[in-house]
């Protein structure tokens, strides 16, 4: 059986994509070369946004310019195959343009094999090997897929776009399991992996500038436990990670071979009724910098974030969302005043309070339009790459955005 | 272009969008449905939590090791909504959200979508390990019926 879900009207487009993806799937064919692939599925998405912001505060390209920014595009294509009930291969290629931090290069978003070691009527246990998305909170696993997000921009206090690569995915092994019962399901994922830390984005976000040396990923640990009542009517999750990164300096580097340990803990809760959903997440993020040999990089602090979000579905086609999202870069300096006194930079670089309202229109099951407005106090989550001069930023600013997204 | 203008435009847009909202479609009563399986599936009864795990795309094989093949109608069909709410006690949007999380993180697959009851009957009758749902009037002896315990 060669099946593609929801393939009613765009067979030609799909055929072109199938041709493009066949090479990626050859490794999958190899496991059962004698017949046609079983349960091969191909899915993808493409989205384009326009953003316009006030002041000099740029979000994904020059959004503060007169014309706004079209520099936010997401393209993804994935394939999965289940040659045996216990075995699945999955891979997704992603291309993302989002200001200077994401220049649109095509890369492997995830690629792994999934083997169910045990599967009973009420429980299962399995293992995944390869590059997996990091299980953090409700949205990290599918954060680049507009259809799975509650809004155009995810709550930036927890799902930072400026340090996204660090938390995005990692190469290693995951153990997963599930226990089902009449009083709800408990599932977990536990992983040992190396985070993805290449590129300027992580260095600018964590060290303040693009250094001559480079980050090296070290063994890291990640886990999430989820409780679901009635197949997701009520969802409760706890995610904890310890991401370890080393720094390898060059000969002339003013900083030494230090290391960074990032330990984010996220508590998540959601209630889903027929018309409305309430979601809230709280995160405590511990940063420890060691052995860099310079005082400004001897850091040990906790960041704190939370948001409350309500969504209402007027009809299956129309949905409205409202959210209040708060970020404190250092929970012991919420106003940023201590940091401002020490660094000479504006205090509002260290927090952000974002009120968001948005509307989603599912024009067809495959095509969606969105519009949203943000009123933000603080510049804590703005990308340093898109906003190189912190003194230019306005503390109180607005962001308006529209997005169109297609999926299959 | 100033942000004030944009705010004004947004308010106008919101007003237009809201004013265009169609009336909520009232799900027409569907005549009674059954959960159906391929005749080779030996199960006659199933627990609700197992049925949810199957349609949640998290349980992949029958007790005898046969792969489970899941068939559903499109999200907006009345039979799908009735089946989701009555048999699984979930709303169609929750199923779609759960399938999307699996498909776009690589941790699972989407069910096979059929476009008509005729196709549902034909696919379930001819695909080993298949499970789906059908109104009683559309059924014939080519599929088995599965009852919730």
Largest interface: A-B, 69 and 58 residues
Shape of chain A: globular
The mean pLDDT of chain B is 85
Beta-strand content estimate of chain B? 15-25%
- Would you give the CATH topology of chain A? Porin
Number of strands of chain B: 6
Q: What is the domain total for the residues of chain A?
A: 1
Gap from first CA to last CA of chain A: 19 Å
The proportion of strand residues of chain A reads over 45%
Helix content of chain B: 40-55%
CATH architecture of chain A: Beta Barrel
Major sheet: arrangement of strands of chain B: 2-6-1-5-3-4
- In the CATH scheme, the class of chain A would be Mainly Beta
Give the structural class of chain B: alpha/beta
Cα gyration radius of chain A (Å): 22 Å
Q: Compute the gyration radius of chain B: what is it?
A: 20 Å
Reading off the top of the CATH hierarchy, the class of chain B is best stated as: Alpha Beta
Explain this structure to me?
The complex is a heterodimer of chains A (408) and B (149). With 408 residues, chain A is mainly beta. Chain A has helices at residues 11-29, 164-168, 200-207, 337-343, and strands at 41-53, 69-84, 87-98, 102-119, 123-133, 169-181, 184-195, 214-217, 220-229, 234-248, 259-272, 276-290, 300-313, 318-328, 351-362, 367-377, 396-407. Chain A has a single domain, classed as Porin, CATH 2.40.160. Chain A is 10% helix and 52% strand. Chain A has a 16-stranded antiparallel barrel with strand order 1-2-3-4-5-6-7-9-10-11-12-13-14-15-16-17. Chain B is an alpha/beta fold. Chain B has one domain (30-148): D-Maltodextrin-Binding Protein, domain 2, CATH 3.40.190. Chain B is 40% helix and 16% strand. Chain B has helices spanning 3-19, 48-55, 78-88, 92-105, 117-126; strands at residues 33-37, 45-46, 69-72, 112-113, 130-135, 144-148. Chain B is globular, with a radius of gyration of 20 Å. Residues 19-30 of chain B have low confidence and may be disordered. The chains are: A mainly beta (408), B alpha/beta (149). At the A-B interface, strand 1, strand 2, strand 3, strand 4 and strand 5 of A face helix 1, helix 2, helix 4 and strand 4 of B.
